[in-house]
Amino acid sequence: MLFKKYFVQFFIVALLSVGASSVNIVFANTDVGSTADTNVVDPNSSAKIMTDTLKDIAVLDVDSFDERREQHKVLFYMGVLLLLFVLLTAGFGVSMAMLGKEVFVPHMICAGVTVFLSIAHAVVAVVWFFPF
């Protein structure tokens, strides 16, 4: 509930700031006494801006792809370890309950590691991939 409240407040502030900046951009270059000839944009300058922007985006995509791949690998290895410790915890629990073996300490250690890995895996996934 608290998260939802702060998220809504953040969304409203972000929406208002984007709206205010867009209004500022629209009305920034308008003069009351100006004619249409003074507001003509040079087509070469806008093409250069677009070319530079597209080059920057292409470079960012290559860097972010390699970074994303490493992040996926880290999460995959964490997930494999998490699955392994879940199975070990379940196996120790079954052997205690069904077979009467005394493996309580290894069961609790594996359970602790499982909880730690599950929380760490969730936090890392949300921090890295939440905005998609």
Primary descriptors:
mainly alpha; rod-shaped; single chain; 132 residues; 3 helices
Topology:
Elements: H1 2-27, H2 43-99, H3 104-129
Description:
There is one protein chain. The chain has 132 residues and is mainly α. 83% of the residues lie in helices and 0% in strands. It has 3 helices and no strands. Helix 2 packs antiparallel against helix 3 (104-129). The longest helix is centred in the middle third of the chain and has 57 residues, at 43-99. The two termini are 23 Å apart. 5% of the residues are buried. Mean pLDDT is 74; it is low at 3-27.
Instruction: Kindly estimate the percentage of residues that lie in beta strands according to DSSP.
Output: under 5%
User: What do the pLDDT scores average to?
Assistant: 74
- Summarize the helix and strand pattern as letters: HHH
Note poorly predicted spans: 3-27
Number of helices: 3
Tell me roughly what share of residues is in helical segments. over 70%
First CA to last CA: what distance?
23 Å
Short characterization:
By secondary structure, the chain is mainly alpha-helical.
